[in-house]
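Below is a filled-in request sheet from our internal design queue. Each sheet records the structural input a requester submitted and the sequence that came back. We keep these sheets so that new team members can see what a complete request looks like end to end.

REQUESTER: design group, bay 2
PRIORITY: normal
MODE: inverse folding
CHAIN LENGTH: 444
BACKBONE (tokenized):
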């Protein structure tokens, strides 16, 4: 009399056209080439690399070359008697010079060069964090769609079951074996389920649009999750081991630590404003007087090479250096506090993800047991209703409990997979290869 519609059958019936479904890895690969946030982070990474390499200019030789050509109309006369006027003539001078400056002692330049090394590492950490963020966003969006599909499929199945219960209640009322109360209860539950189905359709539509926007695909279709007994094993490591790992490898902590190193070197750069600088300098100047000089009409070539050292000693800069030092010291203190805050926040996020994963795995087992119990309760209530022991509301409540349990079980499975990735993200060990085990759990 009553037909069972388990979760697997409901999903297959509702989403039978899965021929062009994409796996999680395929969607992540698509998102890497489309997501504007990730592409922006990649461009920022390349810019930071170039900026870090600019610091080489302060310690490597600087070579410059210049060429000039000057033409002068020259005329003169003697004012003392006898007054003599000399004819005007042109003087043409062509000059070529090459200058090489090799810094010998520039404390600020060396501090900037050391900063460049830390900036390179900081850029790599920022890019790694952006990659982790994209992994989580794609996975979350992927499973959000699957949650929406499961929810809609189960509501459709529940609406069908409630519709059958409503028809049964009407038949029993017509033959006088049931009261109008049973019909009204079934009608109310059917109307409620219908309203929930409409809301679920809209929610799924929004989640699909969000996934399309993220991965750059039109009508992206995630592959279904196989009905398996074990998703992932329970973490063998203690939570403190994960926290210790995060303190070493977390991109957020590394960025804050490197920012502290950069801030400390900024103090050194500011302090260098009080220190002298010493450079080695070599000049080679060639001057061609094409039509002679002002004192001789004979063309000449003049070479004036020179080698020396240049010492620059700062004496007074209007208190600029003093206040610059105070500024950088304050910023160093801020960077140290930011580093400590990053360590605390990362440790908290790691613990939250760890306990969330352990709890989620336990919840999956509990929901699986609850699903079996709810199915047994529904079967018993249907049997009791058919023999007149139970009333219609008992069957409706059992149906609602079963489908709610199925929805919670499906969501708990997806949450476990996402939380596992979030734990690795917090610990700083997340890589694209971590998507492969999840990919293996998806239906072919």
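RETURNED SEQUENCE:
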């Amino acid at each position: 009399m009553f037909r069972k519609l388990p979760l697997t059958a409901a999903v297959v019936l509702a989403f039978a056209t899965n021929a062009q479904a994409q796996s999680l890895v395929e969607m992540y690969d698509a998102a890497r080439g489309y997501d504007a946030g990730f592409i922006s982070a990649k461009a920022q990474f390349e810019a930071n690399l170039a900026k870090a390499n600019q610091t080489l200019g302060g310690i490597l030789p600087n070579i410059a070359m210049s060429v000039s050509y000057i033409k002068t109309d020259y005329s003169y006369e003697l004012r003392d008697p006898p007054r003599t006027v000399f004819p005007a003539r042109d003087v043409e001078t062509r000059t070529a010079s090459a200058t090489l400056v090799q810094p010998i002692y520039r404390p600020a330049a060396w501090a900037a060069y050391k900063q460049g090394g830390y900036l390179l590492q900081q850029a790599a950490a920022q890019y790694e964090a952006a990659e982790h963020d994209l992994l989580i966003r794609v996975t979350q969006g992927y499973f959000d769609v699957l949650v929406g599909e499961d929810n809609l499929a189960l509501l459709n199945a529940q609406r069908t079951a409630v519709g059958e219960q409503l028809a049964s209640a009407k038949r029993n009322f017509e033959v006088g074996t049931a009261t109008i109360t049973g019909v009204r209860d079934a009608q109310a539950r059917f109307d409620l389920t219908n309203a929930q189905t409409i809301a679920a359709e809209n929610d799924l539509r929004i989640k699909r649009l969000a996934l399309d926007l993220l991965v750059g695909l039109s009508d992206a279709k995630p592959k279904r999750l196989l009905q398996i007994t074990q998703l992932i094993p329970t973490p063998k490591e203690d939570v403190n081991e994960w926290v210790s790992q995060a303190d070493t490898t977390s991109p957020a902590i590394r960025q804050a630590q490197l920012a502290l190193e950069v801030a400390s070197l900024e103090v050194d750069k500011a302090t260098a404003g009080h220190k002298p600088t010493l450079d080695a300098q070599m000049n080679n100047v060639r001057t061609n007087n094409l039509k002679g000089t002002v004192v001789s009409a004979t063309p000449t070539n003049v070479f004036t090479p020179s080698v020396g050292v240049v010492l620059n000693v700062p004496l007074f800069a209007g208190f600029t250096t003093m206040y610059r030092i105070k500024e950088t010291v304050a910023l160093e203190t801020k960077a140290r506090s930011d580093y400590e805050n990053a360590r605390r926040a990362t440790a908290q996020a790691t613990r939250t993800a760890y306990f969330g994963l352990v709890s989620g795995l336990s919840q999956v087992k509990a929901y699986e047991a609850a699903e079996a119990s709810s199915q047994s309760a529904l079967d018993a209530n249907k049997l009791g209703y058919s023999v007149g022991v139970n009333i219609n509301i008992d069957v409706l409540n059992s149906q609602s409990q079963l489908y709610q349990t199925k929805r919670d079980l499906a969501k708990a499975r997806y949450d476990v997979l996402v939380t596992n990735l979030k734990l690795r993200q917090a610990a700083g060990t997340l890589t694209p290869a971590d998507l492969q085990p999840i990919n293996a759990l998806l239906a072919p």
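SHEET NOTES:
- The chain has two domains: 7-59+122-143+214-274+318-439, 61-105+276-313.
- The two ends are 35 Å apart (CA to CA).
FILED BY: M.R.
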